[in-house]
Write a structure and sequence with these properties.
Layout (H helix, E strand, L loop, with lengths): L1 H8 L4 E7 L4 E6 L6 H7 L2 E5 L6 H22 L6 E8 L2 E9 L7 H4 L5 H24 L3 E3 L8 E4 L13 E4 L7 E3 L2 E2 L3 H5 L7 H14 L4 H10 L10 H15 L8 H32 L15
Antiparallel strand pairs: 1-2, 2-3, 3-5, 4-5, 6-9, 7-8, 9-10
Helix pairs in contact: 5-9, 8-10
Length: about 325
């Protein structure tokens, strides 16, 4: 990352890792006193997510087109706020590295950080604001025969936009903005538009055929199903150490769907518990397999391992 951006500016920069997703690394350029003012103003405003390597420039072009199209559909057609975004790419030997850039938001206002300090009433207000946007996506998909949109709506992918600046209390006029546009889930007449092979590459090499054959379609489908999307939100309260909110989130979600006229089966606690148990096991196995793959690639095959693996993620 530092080498890529140094090629652009020929100036010293510091790279800070903001966080790790299950697949990608999120970084930013930190300010240094010797940087030109235009670099400080223009570059420090972005958060950069490093994407898996792309084999050819046409794959890069296709991804960048979808990256922008996904944001436009969310903002213009569905009415979901999304931060400004950009992208950069660099050629390395026989592959390209793409960095998906998004304007920084206050980290204290991101959902998974915010939920840790909210009382039950305010947590439910945050949930309601997210559910409103999910229902908007659902309505768009129900009324559009050509294009469907998927969404990964877990709380860590939303940020609160507070009108009062008092984030422990969420007001009626506060809103949320959606952050995860780097995986543009768009289906045109039922066909996924993004090349899913790009994202499979981040899995251990020996797992890719299994994921492709047995799990990929199931994983993708749940982001297009409103009930599955919300189950994922509630189940992740385990990871956020807010198990105390699960039952009230379930009750509030079931009531919200009824009032919104969304015809889905009520969510129950048992399936939340089972979902998270299975999901946590899958991700632990996924990361363990990547560590094995990294060891084999670096120490036996003597090749560069292309991905950064996060430390142990609490679950």
């Amino acid at each position: 990352f530092a080498a890529d951006f140094f090629k652009m500016y020929r100036e010293g920069t510091e790279v800070a890792v903001v966080g790790y997703g299950e697949i990608s690394t999120v970084m930013r350029l930190d300010k240094k006193n010797n940087l030109r003012r235009d670099i400080i103003e223009n570059e420090s405003r972005w958060i950069w997510k490093k994407m898996p390597p792309f084999p050819a420039i046409d794959e890069v072009d296709g991804y960048l087109r979808l990256y922008e199209e996904y944001r436009l559909i969310l903002t213009k057609d569905i009415g979901i706020s999304v931060p400004e975004q950009t992208a950069r790419y660099f050629k390395h030997d026989n592959y390209y590295l793409v960095y998906a850039g998004q304007e920084r938001v206050d980290e204290n206002c991101i959902g998974n950080v915010l939920i840790k300090r909210l009382d039950e009433d305010n947590a439910l207000r945050l949930l309601e604001k997210v559910l409103e946007k999910i229902v908007d996506v659902h309505a768009f998909n129900e009324h559009n025969r050509e294009i469907n949109i998927g969404i990964d709506a877990q709380l860590s992918n939303w940020a609160l936009v507070s009108q009062t600046g008092s984030t422990p209390a969420i007001g009626d006029i506060d809103s949320v903005t959606y952050l995860d546009t780097s995986s543009p889930m768009i289906r045109l007449r039922g066909k996924e538009q993004v090349n899913t092979e790009i994202f499979i590459k981040s899995a251990a090499s020996f797992l890719r055929p299994i994921i492709r054959a047995f799990f990929l379609q199931q994983i993708l489908d749940r982001y297009y199903d409103i009930r599955s999307v919300v189950i994922d939100i509630i189940a992740n309260l385990y990871k956020e150490k807010r198990v105390d909110l699960i039952d009230c989130f379930i009750r509030s979600t079931n009531e919200f769907f009824k009032n919104a006229g969304v015809s889905v089966k009520d969510i129950c606690r048992k399936e939340i518990d089972e979902y998270y148990s299975n999901d946590a096991f899958i991700w632990r196995f996924y990361q363990a397999s990547r560590k094995i793959d990294r060891f084999v690639t670096k120490n036996i095959l003597r090749k560069q391992y292309m991905f950064r693996i996060p430390e142990t993620i609490e679950r």
